[in-house]
Amino acid sequence: MPLKRFLPLFIFAGIFIAFIIGLSLKPGEIPSALIDKPVPEFSLPPLQGAGIGLRTTDLMDKNNIVIVNFFASWCGPCHIEHPALVYLSKIQGIKLHGIAYKDRPKNSLSFLKSLGNPYDKIGTDLKGRVAIDWGVTGTPETFIIRNGIIRYQHIGPIHQMQMDDLILPIIKGLQQEGAS
Amino acid sequence: MIAELGHYLLVLALGLAVIQAVFPMIGAARQDGRMMMLGQPAAYGQFFLSFLAFLALTYSYLISDFSVSVVARNSHSLKPLLYKISGVWGNHEGSLLFWVMFLALFGAMVAYFGRGLPTSLRARVLSVQAMVGIGFYLFMLITSNPFDRLSEIPFEGNGLNPLLQDPGLVFHPPFLYLGYVGLSVVFSFAIAALIEGRVDPAWARWVRPWTLLAWIFLTIGIMLGSWWAYYELGWGGWWAWDPVENASFMPWLVATALLHSAIVVEKRDSLKSWTILLAIIAFSFSLLGTFIVRSGIITSVHAFATDPERGFYILIFLALVIGGSLLLFAIRSDKLQSGGLFAPISRESGLMINNLFLSVAAAVVLYGTLHPLLSDAFFGVKSSVGAPFFNVVFSLLMIPMVITMVYGPHLKWKRADINGINQRLMAITGIALLAALMVFYVTYGGAIMPAIWIGIGIWLLLSTVQELAGRIKLFQVPFKDSLRRLMRQPRSSWGMSLGHFGFAVGLLGIVATSSWTLEAQKVMSPGDEMKIGNYRLTLKDVVPVAGPNYTAVRGILSVAPVGGASFMVYPESRTYISSPITTTEGAVKTTIAGDLFVVIGESQGQGRWGVRAYYKPMQVWLWIGTVIVVLGGVISLSDRRYRIGLPQGQKTSGKVKHAP
Questions:
Q1: A-chain residues near B377 (CB < 8 A)
Q2: Best interface-test mutation with B: which of A3, A4, A9, A30 has the largest number of B CBs within 10 A?
Q3: The domain containing residue B589 runs over which residues?
Q4: What are residue A154's DSSP bridge partners?
Q5: ipTM score assigned to the predicted complex
Q6: I need a surface site. Which of B121, B190, B318, B608 has the fewest CB within 10 A?
Q7: Does the pTM of the predicted model rise above 0.90?
Q8: Domain check: are B386 and B413 in the same one?
């Protein structure tokens, strides 16, 4: 059994390892076109009952840094990200809103019931129409907003490490910007 | 109700696929004829069930049943009928169903037409085909059920992305999928041959038409996609080295190599394990092509929202199919003994060198496509190689490749006389050199490569014609005899001549359009003029128009070519009702010398409009060349050898059955 016959298999194994690593990477981390743009116009129904759950004016908060998180109960990384969001929601001067992306309200509710609800207001984007305007390619995705202007877009779950190194510094920076 | 029925049919088809996978394989190992025989009815039944499931989904689209999740997400009640139907396979879940249905159809075709095959080979082929099918059924049922219902039924569907509402794109995905799925048969034959431990010319005679069929579909599919990009995306580009384009190009390159290496197996009983490897790789690339977009591993303009559950399943599936078959290859391929020997300069060598370059080309595309992933995964660096990388590497790789194409058909089997060929090619080599020099002179000061490439293209064109002329002894015997010889050429050699001729025509088009495209843009009010190349454009008016599911502005421009009659063009910019996306419908005036491509852009206020114009020299040559190539493939597919192969096989089937 000459070794060279195994060569194709070895090459494939190499590519395959890259695939496995790649599945946890975020190739989509490209600067968003929406950075420094005002938040898109939208108005979404709440998870329960009729009326309005979340709309553009909710994000025009002058006193707080606003964070909008696209989530779904069917999305595994959203479960992973959840504690980070709960942590964020407890910080002073932050308003965290959620948009349930292509998710049945019933499932979103039980998801939040079992893991806790960190969101101030929630809109349901059943068809994913609003997500298109936000340039969302998948869940979870998180936007940091100040004075109705999108300042940062995070694609994929917020890991604990990124929380300290990335997210919190950004928020702190924006808060100082507001103070000065 | 219909959707539930469809779901149920899918589960039943999975059951039959399991039977088709298990029993014939065991039967072939034990030489148990009854167990092997189970393969055919299972294959027919599996196709029947998956076809019914496909009809069920189509029905849900036709009646706009928005309680079915995929229909709600991808269809719209106002959509024209054609796009309702094409919507069935225009999304992740539906395309999987489409895939698996054709996988089952091709399995059934092997069962039906393969009556002349050795029983154990046929049983194993059907079994492997069903194993691949099982992977698809499970993928669908576990992660992507096309028949999922919504608990709350929306009043209206999401609509199909307007960019995709185009006749060119209705047929682009199905042809690609047919190509991918067609390669599954070749793959099944390769795996079956590895298990049998036997590859012979008869095997190659079976594999080649399937390769050819898949290759024709792939070629058409890629061309349609490219053509669509050209006139729909509004920047006149036809190839961008996007990961998804590459994903369809890689199996095409490998299938092209396979097409040529199978000839060597068939005629000379050589290059066997290489051919088997190519068959495995071709299908592996098809799977990668089908899945690479859906896993979210590589970003692409084609990417649709992905979720990790699918990515995980896809990886397992790829590991089993590709890893498993390559492992089998590693263990079993030394059983395949090579027959015919050949000299370094011979038809066999020519085909081998061609295979080498095609494979290197495929490897380059694979590397370029995976580069962002590889560098990110192994070095933590985000980088990607763009179109310039591919363009440079490809234009260098293609030179020796085309030289092989010039010489190859002139070479004799076993041993060829290179000096004699050089002498015969002298005249056309001179003409090609002259052409290159002329282009160099006319474009003096510009790049040198285009001139070289035009020369090479003309060289190939003439060489292909000369080879055919030599075969029919043109000008050596009376013209009537030549004509009779021409008519008697086997269809497979017609296929070769047309294939190479079409390639040369397309090559010339590619070189011209990518080297000498002109571009101009201007903000115009009615009455304004702009110049591009030999054309003078005047914007006459801009008017609103209403389509069935869009509104549009239409520019009315008159175009006056130097020394020709003037004509009108009507580019449109459409805004769709269901989703606020604007698409451009460029106006294209095609001549054999080049395309004039006019696009109307956004309103600049005060009745002024952005107008862009391109002049693409010899663009139409690319499409004509591809059509000639496809025609060559179709003619070759109808060759006597393959048609006669069937009844002949039937006659001898009794004898073959008892062979060990």
A1: 17-18, 21-22, 25
A2: A9
A3: 518-620
A4: A142
A5: 0.81
A6: B608
A7: no
A8: no
